[in-house]
Sequence to fold (247 residues):
Amino acid sequence: MSLSFEGVTLAYDELIALDNLNLHVASGEALAVIGPSGCGKSSMLRLAAGLAQPSAGTVAVDGKTLAGPRQETALILQDYGLLPWKTALANAELGLVIQGVSADERRQRALSALKRVDLEAFAQSYPRQLSGGMQQRLALARALALDATMLLMDEPLSALDALLREELQNTLLTCWQEKRYTQVLVTHSIEEAVFLGQRIVVMAPRPGRVVACLDNPQMGSLDYRNEEAFFAQCRAVRSALEGGARS
Ligand code: ADP
Ligand code: MG
Fold:
């Protein structure tokens, strides 16, 4: 599923959260979006999820103007959105319940998604019994169980410590490579954007806008973090961020 923003402006009363955003994300592409707090990243994801409507311009999925949320789009937020009173398995099944999938098929798809993120042994555990990293993997399992064609993530790993973050980044990379859903990852981390984005959109605030769009064709291997090209890309993103801050 492709995703496009054409001349999109989003205003909250006087405040222009996004100003004339033009961006096309191809089907199966992995896009990373980075920028300082307040530059409109979350607003952009809410528009892509169909949870908000632009003040001007259009947001389209596969060329069709988005009028509301789609069942095939999964959104993962920083607080994971898990239901504390449901087991990991029931949480993983949640999107399928909403889709009206039969109980047997739900269970089977949720179990296979839990297995994919190494949580099958915790199917009967409750979210509070899981660490932050495991809760994040569970949120990912829920999206995988849905067979989502688009995965939108708003700073999903920012609550995790550095090592766990890298482990989850590896999981996100390999899942995307297997399933090839269209992925938009909003992050504060330069390294995360470079590790997971085929293209990296750099934004600046007041009003929220895109200041640079960097191609990152070498991404896609777990070893990329140790390569010279990776460090060069990190420097390029950092200088684009600094340029945006000065403009
Ligand atoms: P980011 O995710 O990059 O930090 P947001 O999209 O959350 O940015 O916010 C962009 C701007 O819009 C900020 O200045 C923020 O204060 C403002 N904003 C976000 N949501 C609302 C809202 N519901 N009402 C009014 N202002 C908002
Ligand atoms: Mg935000």
